[in-house]
Amino acid sequence: MGYGDEARDTYGGGAHDRSYGVDRYGPDQYYGADRPGADPYGADAYGADPYDDVPERRPHVRRRRRRGPVLAVVAVVLAGGGYWAATAGPLDGGADGGGPADPEARRTAERFLDGWSAGRMKAAARLTDSPAEAERILASFTEGLEIGKPKLTAGRDRADGDGGAQVTYTAKMPVRGLGTWTYDATLPLVREDGGAWRVRWELGVVHPKLTETEKFRLVREESAELDAVDRDGGAVSAADHPSLAGVLGLGGGRPQGAVQVVDRHTGDVRSTEARFGPRRGAGDGTLRTTVDAELQGAAEAAVERHVGGRNAGLVALDMDSGEVLAAANSPATGFNRAFQGTYAPGSTWKILTTAALLNKGAVSPETTVDCPKYLTVGKQFHNVETSEIPGATFREDFIHSCNTAFVALRGSLGDEEMTDVARQYFGIGEEWSTGVPSFDGEVPVPGDETEKAASLFGQGRLRANPLVMASVTATAATGTFRQPVIVAGQEPSASASALPEGVVEQLRALMRDTVTEGSAQVLAGLPGDVGAKTGTAEVTATGPNNGWLVAYRDGVAVACVVEDAESGSGDAGPVVREVLEAVG
Question: Within 13 Å and on the Cβ side, how many CA atoms surround 74?
Answer without folding.
Answer: 24
